[in-house]
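W.,

You were right to be curious about this one. When I first looked at the sequence I had no strong expectations either way, so I just let the prediction run and decided to look at it fresh. Below is the sequence, 102 residues in total, followed by the output.
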Amino acid sequence: MQSTQILKVKIDSGSAKVREGVPNDEMCDLGDQKVLDAVWTGVLPLSEQFGEPVPGPYNIVKEVPEHVTAYKESMNKMNWEYAEAAARKDAPVKKKEDGDEE
């Protein structure tokens, strides 16, 4: 571990690239059987999920209302179905550009 260093960084903001569809691989990689045999490509679907309801500090109702539970389950199911469908969308057909190898 002598070559390992740790750097602490405070992140004030961030961004993410969000897209739909299967990976859009480079034409040169798609034509290279060694690459195709060695590299897994795919998508890990990501969805927003609601967790278990947490009672507030002044709550005295013992059971979570059915409409809250139903909303959570409905939204989680809908969000997951959307994420899976987005992950399975076909990639756009790549057009050959100047400089691309055969």
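Here's what jumped out at me. DSSP finds three helices and no strands in the chain. And, maybe more interesting for your project: The chain has a mean pLDDT of 83.

Coffee later to discuss?

I.
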